[in-house]
Amino acid sequence: MSGKHYKGPEVSCCIKYFIFGFNIIFWLLGVAFLGIGLWAWSEKGVLSNISSITDMGGFDPVWLFIVVGGVMFILGFAGCIGALRENTFLLKFFSVFLGIIFFLELTAGVLAFVFKDWIKDQLNFFINNNIRAYRDDIDLQNLIDFTQEYWECCGAFGADDWNLNIYFNCTDTNASRERCGVPFSCCTNDPAEDVINTQCGYDVRAKAESEQQNFIYIKGCVPQFEKWLQDNLTVVAGIFIGVALLQVRGIC
């Protein structure tokens, strides 16, 4: 491995092996994410027909595993080898890359605050576009269901956004059994039920709005996401800064 090495014991042993241990876990997680992403694409037949990536109308969640896994793999490898061999080039690469990610995260946060209405419109467009494609891909379906269950929301700004989906819309010409309904992930949890009732959202939007809140989440996912971001952004940024400082200390 080329690169400038320290000639003396300038790096603390504790910091060195802490960075090494952290990064080897980070690297293994990257390998796992990449493996899951490639396996999912293999199951869908994407690897044998690359052009099929663009066939889906909505967002393919497998991209999250591929991109995140790739970044984690590169960063984890650089940090792991750099810490173990005290290679300043790899450690600086790791820290600079980490700094760039943090800078982009900070910039995104500032832009999201300044262009709040535009970001909200884009998020609304993104969610509604994926609502239309809800039945097109099982991975997308699972992602939407997880999001709605985790944030206790339904649709982008409300349950009526599910009118955009051909299976759930309330038009008279819709012959689907799910007409005027919502996915089960919109339903409020019933402590008495041990097994998920996947039909709990049937016909629920045919009821009066005052009754709907007894069966499904009324809040949309956009405002719930905003609330989650406000509650957790400080914690995430703090962890990120802490790791970056440890890396810088290990180099200097």
TrEMBL record:
Gene3D superfamilies: Tetraspanin
Segments crossing the lipid bilayer: 20-42, 62-84, 96-115
Classification via InterPro entries: Tetraspanin/Peripherin (IPR018499), Tetraspanin_animals (IPR000301), Tetraspanin_CS (IPR018503), Tetraspanin_EC2_sf (IPR008952)
Membrane topology value: Multi-pass membrane protein
SUPFAM superfamilies for the chain: Tetraspanin
Compartment annotation: Membrane
Calcium as UniProt keyword: no
Keywords, ordered alphabetically: Membrane, Transmembrane, Transmembrane helix
Chief localisation class: membrane
Keyword Membrane in record: yes
Homology family: Belongs to the tetraspanin (TM4SF) family.
Protein name according to UniProt: Tetraspanin
Gene: Tspan5_0
